[in-house]
Amino acid sequence: MDPGTALAVVSLSFDLLASCVRGFTLISDARNIGKDAAIERTKLMLQEHRLIEWAKVIGLNPPRDDGSLEIHKHPAAIILFQLEQLLSSTDALKNRYKLELVSPPNGSDDLVPSEPAIVSDNPASSILSHIVSSEIRQGILKRASTLNTANRFPRRLYWDAVDKKKYAELVQDVTGLVDGLWSLLDIPHRIQTSRAVNQTLQLAIQTSEDIKGLQYLQKSLQDSFTDAGVKNSLAASAGLKAQHILLTSHSGDTQQQAHSDDGTSRVLPAELPSVLDPSQLSSIHMMISTIGSSLYQGDTMLIEEKRVQPRMKAKLKPRVEALVGLLSQSPTPSFLTFPCLGYTEEQGGFRLVFCFPSGTEKPLSLLNVLSKSSGPLPDVGMRLRLAAQVCQTLLSFHTAGWLHKDMRSENILLVSPTSSPSIDRLSRPYLCGFSFARQGSPTEI
């Protein structure tokens, strides 16, 4: 078929979308994928969700008959056709990527279930296994114009052999095509669609208790999204939630039982928070009642005091340890907190010790900056960016299952490199003041 004829034949049709969904289902549900390709499988599921959200916003799911799709007819049709060719042919997978799907080894001829099963023989099961519900898939396939075997749930197949590198190439090509479809959206619709995907992923992170699944999702988000803000925010949330589960699922001093969505338990090593020697802290200077600075082994540190009544000390110590563990990781663009070195146990409570970023000036609180009567004031854009960054950090903390409980201007410290203008410190708002932080559980006090 010559290119001109092919262009005329290809149309932005619901049948193409149904074939793509069928292809996604065929590949993502295939068994025997192995643990090595689990992250790539998570990325593939994420792209299926993005495709369906794209189809929804342009009126392709459910399909519209008012002709309003003509404006993007040819570019989107060609990309959708390429995606369908990539996903719907086992021969194409074999020839292009050397990935071979075969019939089940036991000779069974079962359909891919309408409700994806999470079973032990599929170690790549993901927390995104249900991000595209069976009702959505079934609805798309049933509404397709050709209701023959081509657009029903496919027969379940098995991977004969999976080359992780080749599988990653497939996922990368699929991602590129879905990105191409998104690029055809106008800016308001792109923002709307991105927000919908963001909200769905946040819910998946909040409700999951699967550490490995969250870690796979974190890596997938870091690799898959072109939107840096979405990527950083959601990846940080997934990583924090995994850390939160790991730290709060104690079953002993050196091991933890972590729940997995495949119904099994994984024994993971527990990295206990560092208990520091109080005598090593010197030159303590309190900036406000609970936050100050101190020298620890010759380095300047930020300290936070958590004062508790003696009778509550033993009860609150596990919370302090879990909080220290959660805050011990390095800051990311969407989770700006000082990395926690450890804690000291004092007569009146606990003291958390945080590392300052190297090569930076002494931080000022947002309250101090706002209270100054002289100097340049930040413009509206800078203030909005500052507020957005603080909200991103707080959202990541909440998604991880924790509540801050003490958000105020004294607890936002502004940091800038020593060579930067003073106004630039507003671009790095670090959240602190975790004295009242607790897990978001009804049993917590």
TrEMBL record:
GO MF annotations in UniProt: ATP binding; protein kinase activity
Protein kinase domain boundaries: 270-445
Signal peptide feature range: 1-23
Alphabetical list of Pfam families matching this protein: HeLo
Keywords noted in UniProt: Signal
SUPFAM superfamilies membership: Protein kinase-like (PK-like)
Name of this chain's protein: Protein kinase domain-containing protein
Taxon lineage: Eukaryota, Fungi, Dikarya, Ascomycota, Pezizomycotina
